[in-house]
Amino acid sequence: MTPVLSLQAIGKAFEPGVPVLQDVSLRIEPGAMVCLLGPSGCGKTTLLRLIAGFEEPDAGAIHLGGQLVSRPGHVVAPEKRHIGMVFQDYALFPHMTVAQNIVFGLFRRPATHRDRRLADLLQLVGLQDMAERYPHELSGGQQQRVALARALAPGPQLLLLDEPFSNLDVNLRRQLRQEMQDVLRRTDMTTILVTHDQEEALSLADTLAILDQGRVVQYDTPEAIVQRPCTRFVAEFLALGHFLPGEIRDHCIVTEMGPVRLNPDMPTVPDGCREIELLIPPECLTLCDNGHGTRARVTQVTFQGTRKLYTVRLPSGAHLQGLCAHDAPLQTGAQINVRYEPTVLITFPSEP
Asked: What pTM, to 2 d.p., does this model score?
């Protein structure tokens, strides 16, 4: 099957010797929701602009629907790429109504087609009763739906979303994420979302492309990345847990909390590496006020909706996070026993 989008060894620099993107290659299949995720300055927005045709690559090639649209010295104009885009600020025309904004890109189509498409899209985004309102008369969430409908109106082969939820409060953001996901699933739209919000990416995407300093360091499903981050950066950026030093010795990882036996079914680190850092997810660290374990002190208590997350300090000064094994709340300063009970081992070579 021909991918909707293929990026081959893309490179881009705005200043000589200061690359923004380096050797970026991706393949995006029809109907996929792909998220470009990474910290500020990692190249996410630049990559989106290259895909849209707003920038020219310094190296590599971009194919859209099997057709070459970008390479050094050759860029197909954005309006000829059949790409829809929802900008961070929505970019609605303030002097146009909802209906006029949505059909703006259909001015060359017959009036009957425009009317039918408008009716379908208003129903799709739930704005049937707001066609004659102006953007300033809408809430932020309603404006976002108008922007989405406008981007979908011409029937693009690819939709680009640039931080579309960043201007919304937390509760509305979650609600609209679900609504947008439902709309895109119903239309089977191939979509690329740019965000720096881990929760947003994990809840929306079929596939994550995690960028670090202009490179794609991992490209996989959210489940695979969470279960097996390929670098320490990925684990830290996704806040998957804290790290504990260890040493591989006699088929065990020896740590401050005792030895962890290596299992052939649990891949660990490259051959020959002895000094490692073991990722300890909160779900694998149990806190209890009796029984066996390593003594630790509670330094912070964080309430996360339905659970409390406890930060503890081991005798060495290392900090870990875990969950309490009983209902009695723990207070900051409390002495507690901690046990590491892994379901999978995730390790990285120790940093120099």
From this structure: 0.87
